Structure formats: C-alpha cells, structure tokens
Amino acid sequence: MRNIYNKIIVITLSLFIILFTCLFIFSDKLKFSENENRYFQPLPKLTFNNIKKGEYTTKLQNYLSDHFYARNNFMSIKTSYEKLMGKKDINGVYLGKDNYLIEKYDKPLNNDKIIESLNNFYQALNYTNMSLMLVPTSITINADKLPNYVEPYVQLDTIDYIYSNINFNTIDVSKTLKENNKNYQMFYYLDHHWTTYGAYYSYLEYAKNNLIKTIPITDFNITEVANDFNGTLYSKSNDYSRESDRIHLFLYDKYKYHVNYVYHKKETDTLYEMSYLDKKDKYAVFLDNNHPLIVITNENIKTKTEIAIIKDSYANNFIPFLVNHFKKVHVIDPRFYKLSIIDYIKENKSIKDVLFLYNINTIDKDNGIVTIN
Questions:
Q1: Can you give the pTM of this predicted structure?
Q2: Nearest 5°: CA angle at 225, between 321 and 223?
C-alpha cells in the first residue's frame, strides 16, 4: 500500500513538473511587466565571459523567475498566505489599515554625503536663490495607518539633520501635509507618490517661503482622470485585495505652455501625457514620466524669471503649479542627466532660482544626487 502511495506522489509530481516545463517553454515571454513596471530579464547569452564573471547563472535564475508561468497568480497566493500568517510587511511594504499600503523606511546611509554634495553645489551657484524641499513619505504622514507594533526609523529626524547642516534655504512641508491630510488624501493608497493634493499644499509652502502669490485651489478645474490606479506598492506587495486609487489633475486654463522634452526631441503644449491613463503606470500622466531634461515655457506670463528644478518623480505633479509663476522651468533629473548641471545653470543665465525636490526615501538611494557636482 505504501509503495502504491509513493508511486502516486512521484507520478503526480512528475506530471506537475512536465506540465509547468511545457507551459514555460511554449508560453509567450513578456519583455516588460506592466504590473511591476519593469523590464523582465531576457534569456542570457552563454558566453565564456558571462560564466567567468558569474553573471550567467544569476541572469538565468532571474530569467526563470521572471517568466515562470502564471507568475502573478502564484505571487498573489503567496501574499494571501503571508497575510493569514500575520505578516506585517511584504517586500518592503507594510500592509496598512484603511486600504493603505505603506513603503518601509530604513535608517539612511548617505546623509553626510548628501549634505556635502548639496553644499558644494550651492557654493558653485551661490548667486541663485536655492531651496531644498525634502518630502516625508506616507509612513510619516499616515503613521496611524501602520500595522500595530510597527516602529519605523523616524523620517523627520533625517530631514532635521540634513536641514540643520544645509547652507541654503530649506522648506518644511511635513506640517502642512499632516494638517491637510485630515481633509484630503495626501498620499496614494497603493503607490509611493504623493497625490496632486499633497503636491498642491506643498506648492503653497514653497510659494510662502519665496514670496510668490499663490493660486487658490478653487481656481483650478480639479478633474478625476482615473479611478483604477494600482501603483508601485500594489505591485511590490502583490496584495490585490485593495481598492484602486483615483488620480486628479488640477487644470488651469489661464496660460499656454510649450513643453520641450529635450533628449527625446519631443515638443507639446500640454503638461500631461494622457495615453498613460490606459497603462499600468498611470502616475506617468504627469510630465510624461521621467526625463533627463525638460524645458517648460509659459508663453503668456509677463515675468522673465526662470527656475531649475532638480528632482525625483515627486516633482512631476508639483511642477504644473510652479509653471504658472515662471517664464521657464528647467526640469533636471540627475538619475538620467549625465552632463554637468552646474554648467547648465551657469550657461542659462536667466535661471535665478533653483529647487531641489526629493522624497526622503529616494534622496538616500539616488547616486545622482551624491555625484551632482
């Protein structure tokens, strides 16, 4: 009887392995994952150099993992099991209360390097009105939504430490984000970015610190353009039980804009790329995702002032507010812009204002900001 039982197990497992091997071999291999917003590992080439460097085995393992049949379904099952077991975070994402998924924040490693890099940058451009805006993420603003007994590293301590050692203007948005989070949703449920409301109230703080007359929220045509946004944290956690986010645009028809995506040689008259609303990465509707260099011209405004914004993706839905106060906005992303930013600002002599805008998570991991000089 035991022999028959063992044979049944062996046959079942063998059939299972054969079935999934066949499904793997004959299924279509995706180049890009909409769900995870990344390119999958292609089949690595078997070369002597790849084997010598130890790269072939690693790439092959990643290839097999990326293209495993029904990958998303199995990952979702794994997440459901971990939730039942009481796990509080999955792949660096806390399973928060009230529909929130919240990105973890670990002790930063590069504070002193960041401070030195930014101060050296300012020293080279000390004739400009330079500001630093570090944005706390949802883990700070929505701390009450964290699972019980979770005590993350305090982001505000990091921000305070950096601000206290910076030689130019710093802008604190933590208080306004916390205060207005009572009435509006400052951060998405399922994505690591702030919402357009979060960007708007931070724009008010920037304007207050720079004596800029702001545009009241009632002057914008606030339009919901998506109600099915499942962002980065949704994909990392594989927790598909959550309610999707909504995306709002704050439209302002007083001015006309000319938007030049310099490196991609694309020019348009809109701050939004609406085609992304039909894709997974709907946040990319703001400024057509991330680019090395974008130059936005306000064609109707009377002022001749220009600003350079050095940023991560948090700035993408913040910039549509600033374009209403400057003749030109130069948007530079150090992750992709490989030339000297200092030289660029010096060559564009009308740039008198500079803003660094980063979320506190990204700035610690962004090599571009450390090597910005």
A1: 0.83
A2: 55
